[in-house]
């Protein structure tokens, strides 16, 4: 399995598709590659983290609005990892309002950000599998 | 107690994803996820006790 230095391997379009699908819908990248259990479990974990985060009073951050502090953009990037959940949330106004009156709202924010970061990892894992870097 | 339960829930969900993307193979996957879960809980306890003694 050794590769020559400098060898460039062509990445098939289906690999990019799996990664993008996995980013948009948590777990879909693995499911599309026939790894149903991995995709279902990973997708469910991300969905639960996002949903629990919203239920705890968390909110998604904007990528551009820094009125909540300069770190908002970084937090927004973490939330962006949830793919369609993030985009739908921004479009519909779901879980957009900060709720500092709830004691668990900061937990909720962290749950939602970690959901996004984990989904980034899942999407990259689907890419690596498609590219033949992982079994 | 609610905070502790939330920590357990968080640790278990993160451990599931780490188990999925780990390179341990199918046999070691569950063990790796369990290890990640335990590490989250133990580190959480240690940090909580350390912060308890800091007066600010």
- Relative strand content of chain B: under 5%
pLDDT under 50 segments of chain A (min length 5)? Answer: none
What does the main sheet of chain B amount to?
A: none
Taking the sheet with the most strands of chain A, its summary is: none
Q: Total domains of chain A, how many?
A: 1
Category from helices, strands and their pairing of chain A: mainly alpha
What is the C-alpha radius of gyration of chain B, as a whole number of Å? 14 Å
Q: Which characteristics define this entry?
A:
heterodimer; A: 135 residues; mainly alpha; elongated; B: 56 residues
Task: Characterise this structure.
- The complex is a heterodimer of chains A (135) and B (56).
- With 135 residues, chain A is mostly helical.
- Chain A has one domain.
- Chain A has helices at 13-24, 28-32, 36-55, 72-80, 84-92, 105-130.
- In chain A, α1 (13-24) runs antiparallel to α6 and α3 (36-55) packs antiparallel against α6 (105-130).
- With 56 residues, chain B is mainly alpha-helical.
- Chain B has one domain (2-53).
Show the helix and strand layout.
The complex is a heterodimer of chains A (135) and B (56).
Chain A lengths: L12 H12 L3 H5 L3 H20 L16 H9 L3 H9 L12 H26 L5
Chain B lengths: L1 H20 L3 H29 L3
